[in-house]
Amino acid sequence: MTNIETFIAAWKSHRKVLHDMLEGVTTEQLSYRPWEKGMSLKELVLHITGAMDMFANTVQNGAHTQGTKPASPPETVEDLKAVVAASTERTEATLRTLTPEQLAQSIDFFGNAVPGFALLENAKDHEIHHKGQLFTYLRLVGIEQLPFFVSRG
Length: 153
Known about the structure:
The protein has one domain (3-140): dinb family like domain (Four Helix Bundle (Hemerythrin (Met), subunit A)), CATH 1.20.120. 59% of the residues lie in helices and 5% in strands. The protein has helices spanning 3-21, 41-61, 77-97, 100-104, 116-140, and strands spanning 106-109, 112-115. The chain has a two-stranded antiparallel ribbon with strand order 1-2. A hairpin with a 2-residue loop joins strand 1 and strand 2 (112-115). It is globular. Keywords: Metal-binding.
């Protein structure tokens, strides 16, 4: 397995859990915010998927590049699941195109010179951090059955 294949496998072991976490969510719960200025549950999920897409695009292009936004904002939990699935496929496809040179290149990321591979590791950590927040959101809306934080299957 190459370094990028190992990275993708590790990232997907976390991303699969994000998909699983949405199984018990209702459309009504998508607007839940734990505090007035906090992201809603739906916004947090979109932030998780959009950020990883942005990081992958940035490494691919060698400079900060925005992630892909959904064509229309998801209104239902089924819409959100579809956005997460499409984003996961798109991001994985981008990751699979990355060359060793792109992974080694130094990228200016908000004033810091970071090798592409290190930027992707930061991206995975960012996703894990926000997934932890999402676990808390889901508990606060009353969801009792949640998956383990990482999937091995």
